[in-house]
C-alpha cells in the first residue's frame, strides 16, 4: 500500500540523493556506493550469488527482474523493439541499436592499424585476426595476438613486434 507518508519519504530520499549526487549506501564487500538502498541490495547479489527471480517455464534463475523479463521473451517470442527502417524486430533494445547501425552506416569500432571501421566488436576482432595472419605470412614466424575488450576500445598486443595499440593509437615500447 502506497501511503502519503511513504510518498513523502521517497520524495525526500530522491531529492537528497538524486539531485545532490550523495551516495549514502555502501557495499560491505567492495565499498562501491549507491544513492538508493534498492540499488545496493541488487548489487549485493553480484557478491552473494543470490538469484531469486525464477522462470516459471524452464526454472532458470536470475539476479534481477529485468533479466527475467528479457528471458521470458525467449518463451513467448515477444519482440517489442522494431526497426524504423525495415520490418525486423528484436527482443532486446541493444540488439535493435546494433541492427540500426547497418542502416545508418555508423561505425564505432575502428581498426588501430589500417583505420577500417566496423559497426560491432566481433567484426573488428575478426578483422584484427587478418592483420595477424598477414604478418605471420610475411615474417614466416608465429606472432601472438591478445585481443582484450575495454568497452568500445581494444588493446592489441603483438608480442613479436612489441607494439601496443590502444584506442587506435600505436606506441612503440
TrEMBL record:
SMART domains: ZnF_C2H2. The keyword Acyltransferase does not apply. Transmembrane segments: none annotated. GO terms for molecular function: DNA binding; zinc ion binding. It is found in: Nucleus. Pfam families: zf-C2H2, zf-C2H2_4. GO terms for biological process: developmental process; regulation of gene expression. InterPro entries: Zinc_finger, Znf_C2H2_sf, Znf_C2H2_type. Keywords: DNA-binding, Metal-binding, Nucleus, Repeat, Zinc, Zinc-finger. Residues 25-52, 53-80, 81-108, 109-136 form the C2H2-type domain. GO terms for cellular component: nucleus. This is Zinc finger protein 664-like. It comes from Kryptolebias marmoratus.
